[in-house]
Amino acid sequence: MRFFLKRILPAILWLCCFHVSAQHKDDVFSIGIFWPPVWKHTTDEQYRILSETHVDIVQNVSSTDLNTPEKNFRMLDLAQKYGMKVYVSDPRVTGSEEEIRAMVDTYRNHPATGGYYIRDEPDSTMLDWAIKTYRLIGQLDTARNPHVNLFPDFALENYEKGYVERWIEGVGKENLRYLSFDIYPYKRNGRFEKSYYNNLDIIRRAGLKYHVKTANYLQSFGIVDIYRRPTVDEMRLNVYSNLAYGIKNPVWFCYATPTGQGSQVFMNSVIDSLGQKTNLYEPFKAFNAEMKTLGKTLIRLDANEVYHSGDSLWMGTQLPPADFVVRPQDPTSKVILTRFKDRYDGKTYVMLVNKSFQEPAQVAFRVSAEVKKIQQIPASDGKPKKVPFDKKARLLTETFLPGEGKLYLLKTRH
């Protein structure tokens, strides 16, 4: 027994600690852009400007003018210089197995290769091909991410079981790097996409069920007669609602403004078609900084419960139970409430989000008796700080910008 306590037990504890620390090291909260600077703007200056926005991944896609080895390598070299990665896009991905192998061999040794674009929004008839291609590329290059992005729910029937889960089980949850999809909330004429939260919840549940990290696209574009160009407050709600639903890889569509897209006429995004910054650049940069700061904590957290309060509920949402750990004193307050659990140490966190993208809000939250202490994890620096929590009255009162979310660590009695 003495030998076990002196020699074996410390070794076991060290291995456990090493395993946990290795898990933490591998878990990285990454921010991406979909639609990079086009070829004439694939310059040192443009990538320097991009690198200042806290972006990690530049996603090339088949609809750009960047789909040759020469152009991919120019992107890779610039990304490497400025500390970013690239998902390369090469038409050989749709070819034979031999062509796919040649494609992977072309890029796998470049240090800035982060992944390989396969397909955006495959329909049900293309899913088996996408699964086969994803698995093949994942086997050929185990260090980088094959990339397929799924449709939202309104595009297909039997969405959750027949499309999302079919995709995960076809690829194999152990092989899937991210469960990625897109849903854009801000439609023309001031409309809000009615299935926005339902989509986020479907992907949240699937990610938890299969233990797969999730990714979604944030709206930084407008398309004439389809989507409106978001305001800063609308961008903020898009950011924090995604974080509240457990998204670990937010990707902005789009960064550069697409041109020549047929009937789809894009309004200016973060960078206009001339390569100039628009009024979205500084908010884009600021929101990314907030996500990266909170992401150091959020990457470890599972969004196990998500509720909505307010006098009317959107599709796919539900009210918090009467005994929920933190709930609005006024049930008409428009708030998203998420309970997270740290998958490594079991600690409890909550995120509270002002659902209004038009009005700031001051909300009083009733806190259950099980909570001994509350600390906020600020988006500014991530260092836990005290909050205005009245222990006697069991009330937490906070002020939110339109669409703003705040993350809290709860110390409970059990």
Rg on CA atoms, Å: 22 Å
Structural class: alpha/beta
Number of separate strands:
18
Please give the largest β-sheet.
8 strands, parallel, barrel
Could you say how many structural domains there are in total?
2
CATH homologous superfamily of the largest domain - what is it?
Glycosidases
Helix content: 25-40%
Summarize the structure in words.
31% of the residues lie in helices and 24% in strands. It has 2 domains: 26-298, Glycosidases (TIM Barrel, Alpha-Beta Barrel); 302-412, Immunoglobulin-like (Sandwich), CATH 2.60.40.1180. It is an alpha/beta fold. The strands form 3 sheets. The chain has an 8-stranded parallel β-barrel with strand order 1-2-3-4-5-6-7-8, surrounded by 4 helices. It has a 6-stranded antiparallel sheet with strand order 9-11-12-18-14-15. α5 packs parallel to α6. Mean pLDDT is 94; it is low at 9-23.
What are the main properties of this structure?
alpha/beta; 18 strands; TIM Barrel; 9 helices; globular; 6-stranded antiparallel sheet; 8-stranded parallel beta barrel; 414 residues
Can you give me a brief rundown of this structure?
With 414 residues, the protein is of the alpha/beta class.
